[in-house]
């Protein structure tokens, strides 16, 4: 019995995985609504127990989908993110392809950063960029440091290449700390 | 290796001694020492396939593999046809909401890919694998294990792309997958990678079969089958195999460069880093145009065989027919640019390809004229196979002539990439391949199965196919001229293409019905068809000398060929060459031009290794879609399988 | 006239020659020459086809007596057939050579280009056309999208480029197609002999919305064309009515400005069609919808159900915001 169930299960997983990864969701459902994510920047919280978090799961939907990540890559230049963050190496804005995250490296953190803006120059794009595109951008930003699956991360673009494409980027999971500008440091 | 063949005349009163002679090893049982049913049974045991799953997987019998090839290719034909039906339903009305662009693009990609790579090339080779050894009078194809391997590789490649399609990873950039659309920037995910690896699978198997055919034809012909006695079908697939050998590597390289661009970030097609998008088109069409002839050439073989048999006259103009096959093969490499007339090439260069494209009309014209002459001077018996060949004349000539229009640079700039082109190449490919192929199946079905197909259903099949085809594709000429581009998932009502598209859709449904009828005919005839003798059509070529269906050894004794149509020349009994071992797999290797019996050569035994090697190859190819390292570890698995495959058996021959 | 006759004869019930995107309904010198060449080829080749089919039909008569040995041949008949076939082959060669010559002659004539004429750069995007009118004077250059106006009776040179994948520029009533290939520039000369709007469409598969990548060529007398051009060069006029003013505010508070440009305002996006004079164009969404209030509204509310996969996202918009926004855009004449 197990000999049938196990391969069938694996096959089913593959099927579901494939469907999710390759789906081209042109039109988000429900349309243009903003999700409410609560995510902690640090593991500290008042009282006992970890901070209260709430994720809608939308991040996974975007991070695990090749089309969304590729769209994010297009929007990254279209919306001039590279104006400050360059190709990921950073310019007047911090680098995005390393493992240091000032405001958290989870996709929900990045969505928050894009949506609300951050001190010292990062503007808020709420209302200017539709929420779904913010998720796409955030998913792409994750892929720049090798934090989405390799078969989802985009390949090279048809232009000059200052760095390897996202699907060849070594994994660099977010680490705490790093060089944080004084303005963004936790109050002592 | 020094053992040379003896010729003998044990039963038949007529027989000719071949030049080669050597003393017979007394310890080994030879086919001149026994006779009749005993000989048949013992040979069948020697050449037979073991029962059970392992036996089936390790078989090297060209007839079993050939049958699988044919069945699989037809399965893909049906899948491709089904995807076409869905496309036609979507296009039946303007702004139809049956499906969105994402599914439509996957469907037309699967349709083109399946028809070209999984049906068009393999079907010609499939029939060749089955028929060539029979027609040249040998016992098995050359490199039979490679043959088994090639089938599994083809099967795995085809299954891979269709399973991927069902998992929503269907390639969606067309059967040509032009960069940059198919490149890493505009085709995210793994869809195109599956397409590119499917190419590697099918082309690998195609090349393997081509090599087998070439060697079989050159070295395994029955004694006496000099170059000018080779059946026209064999000539056709022989030339075809050379075209395959020279054309397929181009597309394998193109698809490999594509997957390298996508997977490891090379810049072959990236103009910003010095690559070139047009490079891909050149490489693709350097394969892509000969591809058309790869699909067409075997069909000329079917036509020659059917025309000769049903005109009751030997083919008129054997030499011009063979020479035009060869000329077509050569010229087919000189016209690829006519697929690229609108990319902005220098005018003089483009017009050179106009000339060469029109030139190929000449050898094709010669072939058509010779066939008509054969019918003219014969006594045509209009049975279903000939009916399909007549349909071929009607449709293929029309398609060929519209091809002359497309060869002209100025006209092509208007009709390129429109439904006019769609109409043209369906006239050429369905007319030039599928109609003769259906005729060929009706013709050789008794040989494959021992039973005749129903003539009545066959006539229905033909007329439905003929009417449905013309109804589906003739209007496309006009929609194309009215401005409808190819590969659009819908069109606006005010364009005025609605009625014609509806007619096309109805035609496509009729055409599909005719194929369902064909399938019904095949299935019912398999069980209830009239029993066919060895030669139900009274044809002249050697395959009809074998039993229907043929015994595992094909022939009890290797025939000696005295005429281009041996069965017509030797009415009473075919002379034979004897001296081959009964208990070991042996066949005759003959000289290239004169086909003098030269050596007795051992033919490989069944083995499971080709299957294992094919599985390892599949793992390596599919793995490489996800990581380049798969080439490394997959390669070692293939290496291990190959070591098993070629492990020395300690046979006398290997040691001498 | 002969054209129409031929048409009726060949494709009787279908009336295919008409249509605003038809290669057989031509209004430019190039397309007309191509059409003539097409009919020449068709008549010659049609004749060849009829001859061949006649031969096939005749060949089906039974000439051989029943039971005759299929290997027996009659040398006299054999040689007669040989000569007939040689004749047919010779005729084929002559036909093919003649057609090649004809083709080459008209090709030379067709692709002659002049470079002292009005030059327009057309850039293909997924799935729309960017149109830049070039001029030696900087203040005469301007950008528009999906609609190309040209003066009647004058040749116009198109420079064809692509920003992403390969597209193909095809306006069958005026001339044959030419591809737009990233990393290259192709040129194509068009000329319209008659006033009118001619539809064109992308002819090289370019992705999901290949089917909806249309364009319009509007040919007008020189004076009208100049008037149109002067208007296009101008920046967008500021809204006068309250509704349009509110619409402008909504436009600037929404994601629209991230991608679209309206010259004369702070909306400076460069990745989507220029909207400075969108109200003056006959179609929106690259030849997909006629420019009406209803269509503009439908396109803004749900572009993804009209052109699934297009780059225009579905945005959040309140019901009472739609009317002013549409008024604003419609008024951008």
Automatic annotation (TrEMBL), chain A:
Cofactor: heme c
Domain spans labelled Cytochrome c: 67-145
Biased composition (Basic and acidic residues): 156-171
Superkingdom per UniProt: Bacteria
Statement: the UniProt record of this protein carries the keyword Iron: yes
Disordered: region residues: 149-188
A Gene Ontology molecular function term of the record: iron ion binding
Keyword presence, Iron: yes
PANTHER family: BLL4482 PROTEIN (PTHR35008:SF4), BLL4482 PROTEIN-RELATED (PTHR35008)
Name assigned to this protein: Cytochrome c oxidase cbb3-type subunit 3
Automatic annotation (TrEMBL), chain B:
Pathway listed: Energy metabolism; oxidative phosphorylation
GO molecular function: cytochrome-c oxidase activity; heme binding; metal ion binding
Subcellular location, record wording: Cell membrane; Membrane
Principal cellular location given in the protein's record: membrane
Enzyme Commission no: 7.1.1.9
Domain Cytochrome oxidase subunit I profile: from-to ranges: 41-562
PROSITE patterns listed in its UniProt record: COX1, COX1_CUB
Keywords linked to the UniProt accession: Cell membrane, Copper, Electron transport, Heme, Iron, Membrane, Metal-binding, Respiratory chain, Translocase, Transmembrane, Transmembrane helix, Transport
Membrane topology, as annotated: Multi-pass membrane protein
InterPro entries named in the record: Cyt_c_oxase-like_su1_dom, Cyt_c_oxase-like_su1_sf, Cyt_C_Oxase_1, Cyt_c_Oxase_su1_BS, Cyt_c_oxidase_su1_bac
GO biological process per UniProt: electron transport coupled proton transport; oxidative phosphorylation; respiratory electron transport chain
Catalytic activity reported: 4 Fe(II)-[cytochrome c] + O2 + 8 H(+)(in) = 4 Fe(III)-[cytochrome c] + 2 H2O + 4 H(+)(out)
Transmembrane segments: 69-87, 107-131, 151-171, 194-218, 230-260, 292-311, 318-338, 350-374, 386-407, 419-445, 457-478, 498-523, 632-648
Record's GO cellular component terms: plasma membrane
Record-linked NCBIfam families: CtaD_CoxA
Membership in a protein family: Belongs to the heme-copper respiratory oxidase family.
Function of the protein: Cytochrome c oxidase is the component of the respiratory chain that catalyzes the reduction of oxygen to water. Subunits 1-3 form the functional core of the enzyme complex. CO I is the catalytic subunit of the enzyme. Electrons originating in cytochrome c are transferred via the copper A center of subunit 2 and heme A of subunit 1 to the bimetallic center formed by heme A3 and copper B.
Name the record gives this protein: Cytochrome c oxidase subunit 1
Source organism: Microvirga subterranea
Source taxonomy: Bacteria, Pseudomonadati, Pseudomonadota, Alphaproteobacteria, Hyphomicrobiales
Automatic annotation (TrEMBL), chain C:
Presence of the UniProt keyword Cell wall biogenesis/degradation in the record: no
CDD domains: CuRO_CcO_Caa3_II
PROSITE patterns registered for this protein in UniProt: COX2, COX2_CUA, CYTC
Domain Cytochrome oxidase subunit II copper A binding: 115-231
Topology versus the membrane: Multi-pass membrane protein
Segment forming the signal sequence: none
One GO-annotated biological process of the protein: ATP synthesis coupled electron transport
Alphabetized InterPro entries for the sequence: CcO_II, CcO_II-like_C, Copper_CuA, Cupredoxin, CuRO_CcO_Caa3_II, Cyt_c-like_dom, Cyt_c_oxidase_su2
Catalyses which reaction(s): 4 Fe(II)-[cytochrome c] + O2 + 8 H(+)(in) = 4 Fe(III)-[cytochrome c] + 2 H2O + 4 H(+)(out)
This protein's UniProt keywords: Copper, Electron transport, Heme, Iron, Membrane, Metal-binding, Respiratory chain, Transmembrane, Transmembrane helix, Transport
Transmembrane residue ranges: 38-60, 81-105
PANTHER family the record matches: CYTOCHROME C OXIDASE SUBUNIT 2 (PTHR22888:SF9), CYTOCHROME C OXIDASE, SUBUNIT II (PTHR22888)
Family of this protein: Belongs to the cytochrome c oxidase subunit 2 family.
Record protein name field: Cytochrome aa3 subunit 2
Organism phylogeny: Bacteria, Pseudomonadati, Pseudomonadota, Alphaproteobacteria, Hyphomicrobiales
